[in-house]
Amino acid sequence: MSAKSSKADEVADILRREIALGIYPAGSDLPSEARLSARFGVSRPSSREALRVLESEGLIRVARGARGGAKILPPSLGAISRYLGVYLQMRGVRLAELYAALQAFEPLAVRAVATHKDPAALSDLAQCVARQEFSTHDRAAFNAHEAEFRRLLMAHCGNEVIHLMGELLADVYGLTMSFVSAEIHATDTDIADLTSSITAKRRLIKLMAEGETEKAEQSWRNYLAVYWKRVSRHVGADKKINVYTGGDGGGEAG
């Protein structure tokens, strides 16, 4: 490692910590390269390189020119999920393993929603199911509502860690499914499957509204198991995570 890179990494690490601590909140500006160089006793190129590191991590956006500067960006789950997807693909992780993780997190979210019985959360979920019911003729729209319903569960669980992990896993799952849709063909059981999906969600919402935490959690575990059985029937149980491919197609399985 060169001295320049070492100094830049040290500066980047300190600024990264200060961003995490909220010393520089989202939307605020970092000091100029000149001020950073004076503060840390490093050269302008080292300060510039430190900013490049933070920009590559999606923590800041650097505008060039006389009126430019570095601005703190709001946290982006999309950037994290892309890194996670690439990492899992490089590790050769199977789609079944990823889905098993979703099967662990989503029931926890269901239990939390059932515990709080928040009317706003239940209303959001019910409206999503209503939209999904009227999209059974359009598989792409139906799948979009499916993903929305499951994201809403995570968003309303009240636990930011579960929400974060669920979002990341769902993003990677969705990316992979967008590339394998060409392998999924309509079958005679499709309408029945879609109808049963709507019925299961309505039952889940009713259980959560009644505060039936155990029954709601088990109901969703059963739903996820059936859902995966349908997906694996089309794509195969040994399908690997694939977020970057030569071009397989687009759309999620339902």
> How much of the sequence is in beta strands?
under 5%
Largest sheet: 2 strands, antiparallel
Q: Under the CATH scheme, which architecture of the largest domain would be assigned?
A: Up-down Bundle
Q: Which structural category do the helix and sheet elements fall into?
A: mainly alpha
Tally of helical runs: 10
Low-pLDDT segments, ≥5 res: 247-254
The overall pLDDT average reads: 88
Total strand segments? 2
| Order of H and E elements | HHHEEHHHHHHH
Going by CATH, the homologous superfamily of the largest domain would be GntR ligand-binding domain-like
The percentage helix is: 55-70%
Order of strands, main sheet, comes to 1-2
Integer-rounded radius of gyration? 23 Å
CATH class of the largest domain: Mainly Alpha
How far the N terminus sits from the C terminus, by CA atoms, comes to: 49 Å
Count up the domains: 2
Can you give me a brief rundown of this structure?
The chain is mainly α and 254 residues long. Helix content is 68%, strand content 3%. The chain has helices at residues 3-21, 33-40, 44-56, 77-90, 95-116, 119-133, 139-155, 160-180, 190-209, 213-235, and strands spanning 60-63, 69-72.
